Amino acid sequence: MANTDKHGRTLVAVTGIGMVTALGQGKDDNWAALTSGRSGIHRITRFPIDGLRTTIAGTVDYLRPTPSCAPVISEQLADMAAEEAVSQSGIGSKGDFPGALFMAVPPVEMEWPQREALAKASGQTGDITYTDLLKGAATGQFKSWHELFIFGTVADNIAEKYGTKGSPISLSTACSSGATAIQLGVEAIRRGDTDAALCIGTDGSVTPESLIRFSLLSALSTQNDDPEKASKPFSKNRDGFVMGEGAAALVLENADKAKARGAKILGYIIGCGEKGDGFHRTRSSPDGTPIIAAINDALQDAGVTPQQIDYINAHGTSTPENDKMEALGCMTVFGDHMQNVPISSNKSMIGHTLTAAGAVEAATSLLTILSGRIPPTINYENPDPTIPLDVVPNVARDAQVTCVLSNSFGFGGQNTCLVISAEPVV
Question: Which NCBIfam families does the annotation name (predicted)?
Answer without folding.
Answer: PRK06501.1
